[in-house]
Structure formats: structure tokens, C-alpha cells
Amino acid sequence: MVFIEPQDAPRLNAYVLTDLSAEELNSFKKAFEYGTFAPFGTMLELILKKAPDDYLNRPHSYIRTRENEAGRTDPFILIDEQLRLEGAVWYVDTFAADFEVDIDEPIAASTAVLWEILVQTEYLPISWATYQFGNGHIHADLDYCGVKTPVQENFKQPKVNRCDGMDLQPLRQEQTMLIMAEPGDFEKSTDEEVLKGLVPPPDVAYRLKEEVAREFGVLNQWVDGIETQSREQPDGTVKEFPEGTVRLQLKPDPNVSWPPYKWPEGSL
Length: 268
What we know:
Number of domains: 2
Structural class: alpha+beta
Helix content: 25-40%
Radius of gyration: 22 Å
Distance between the termini: 35 Å
């Protein structure tokens, strides 16, 4: 038996500050799904919700403060008329820190500066990943978008961050899915010609049997694998597997009609 591992991507709140038609909402969702590499390589999910009345017609700094007071200190997304005008949304992070102000060449004028950026929807997930896990900082992208340094409180962003028109399709095509394959569903090889095609070369290479790969809609190829008997699931439960089960990373077949991506429960 083959088991496809469910996604367990980080989630951010996304507050809708304007009235969106069903078509506009669907267009936003499709753009975000494309940029987050859904459904198999999903790097970020949004809990899409109508903004509280208290957030309407308020400065973004006010909303950030209220979120902090509620114990929600993670970044969040604001969706306003810029979605309709520019196909872009606001990524809102933190207020500037002392070390960003009290230095010889400050990047923020004061700690009242809110680090936020208007970014094209498709590039929201990869921007988030850069800020959270890479060496990127919103300031660098703001500078590229025409915001002068040191950044002032209530600054204006002259142009939308579109990540210089990065082509996301090649990255999407490289996304893989995690598969747990039980004994009888895969084959293995120690052939040197097979092993040297993997980097670094493992001691053993694995692939699904051809009929199993076709049934589950994956592109079959030799890959490294990890033997495992249990995996913790996103809901905290532990799923057990027979002895000899291997975990493989394989690419989904783009010619298969996969079920659509499911937005988190509670999303619009």
C-alpha cells in the first residue's frame, strides 16, 4: 500500500478589508495557490477571513498593535483595494527594532516604523520564505521598490514588489510529494550506474513499481529512501507502517487530474 503524506505548511491570518466579488476572491486564491506551489509543495497557507470591524479604515500599525495585544505576533496579510488595482496584497511583519534604528546607518527612522510591503499575490509565499528563513529583509525589497532609507513612519511604497518578474513555473515543476511505500510496492537497486545518478550516491536506491506509480500518479524514478515505521501527522497522531516501509520523495505527474487544493478550515 502507498500512503501520500498530507501537507503541514505554516499558516498566516489574511484579513479581507474590502468587499470582493466571488470572481475576485477566486482569482486571488488561484494566484496564491500558484505561488505557494500547491497542492504538493505547499510552503505557506492562509486562513482567509473577513477583517473585524475594528480593523476597517485603520492604519496598518493599529492592526499590528491589536494583533500583538491578542498574542498573535506572527506576520499577517491585509487584502484591500490594491488587490483589485495591482493584484497585490500587504505582507505585514513587525515594528522596527532598536538595533535597526540605533546604528550608524539606520534602516528605520524609529521603532514606530512598521515593516510591511505590498507584494504581488503570486510572490507572497516566496517573499515570506525569504524573510522568515533566508537572509532577506523587507527593507531590501522596499529599497528596490523606491522607498528611501532610513524608512520613515507611514512611508509610501512607489511600486509593487513583483520579485523582478521571477518565473515560478520551473520551481513548481521541481516540487515533490512525500510517499510512504510498503514492502511489495517498490523495488530497490544497488547497481552503480543507478546510484551514481543520485547526489550524493546512496547505498541503495528505490523506486515504485511501474504499475503502482501509474496508479498513484507520480513520475517514477530512482531516488534515495528512508526506512521508517511511523510518522507523526499534522493533527498530532502517529501513523504506523509495516516493517520495511520506505519514505520516498517523488514528483507528481502533471498529466494527472489531481484533486484541487483545499484551503484551511475557516477560510472564506
